[in-house]
Amino acid sequence: MAFISFRRPDGTASYGRIDGDRVIDCGAVADTPADLKAAIAAGVLDTLDAGPSLGLAEVLLLPVIPHPSKILCVGHNYESHRQETGRAKVDHPSIFTRFADTLIADGQPIIRPRASTNLDFEGELAIVIGRGGRAIAEADALDHIAGYACFNDASIRDWQWHTTQFAPGKNFPGTGAFGPQLVTPDEAGDLSDVRVTTRLNGEIVQDQPIRDMIFPLAKIIAYISAFTPLSPGDVIATGTPGGVGAKRTPPLWMKAGDRVEVAIGPIGTLSNTIIDEDQLG
């Protein structure tokens, strides 16, 4: 099954299950959870099959989870990306955080800020936590996943490199693209050979199978949950393959008018254009 968060034609927020080119508006049914995060927490995703039907073209997509409590990101989790950045091999995942107010949906513009022109792409697979927990065993970790989505951890590189701490370059408004949909594990199937592919203006700039992760999904969940409790609706962006714009000669920065797409097999395709902050009303 696949689910989206969206705004109805009247502007009110809801969520629902995708049914072909339509969405079943589960949020319109009495006594159902208020939003997708609440539905995940209640453990009722597999029962959501009622509600009025809306055309996908009628609704405005929101980030898959509009307000996750935590967004945790994994750095340098593909060997190709570790090598291009010159980072040393490590025994544990590199973890940093994003703020929920940086998120945008499929179809919304990624914002290149006034403060920099060094806007880079990072196509990634995102995990959405279903069953929360602390100190989750690696053997049990995959059972804690509600579903998967595409993520673009768009980065303001010069701000990321001001110091050894990543947070400034990862938290400019309108730079965390997340969508278009949440795909449940049964629908996604085995993702080992599925590729994370990023295209900029139609040209492939990143392309690598998920099995090439240095730290696989179960290890990431176990490691993160050892130091912080995970809750339903929390998001983990699992790292980007090599090929980022910053490590090309010359660097390949995204600019206003560009289109960037992150495609991950059965998980879908996340598509966003780039605008300059000064273009905002």
Automatic annotation (TrEMBL):
Metal-binding listed as a keyword: yes
Molecular-function GO terms, alphabetical: hydrolase activity
Q: Where is the Fumarylacetoacetase-like C-terminal domain?
A: 70-274
Q: Which UniProt keywords apply?
A: Hydrolase, Metal-binding
Looking up InterPro entries in the UniProt record yields: FAH, Fumarylacetoacetase-like_C, Fumarylacetoacetase_C_sf
Listed Gene3D superfamilies: Fumarylacetoacetase-like, C-terminal domain
Question: Pfam families in the record, alphabetically?
Answer: FAA_hydrolase
The family assignment reads:
Belongs to the FAH family.
The molecule here is called Fumarylacetoacetate hydrolase family protein
Q: Which organism is it from?
A: Sphingomonas mollis
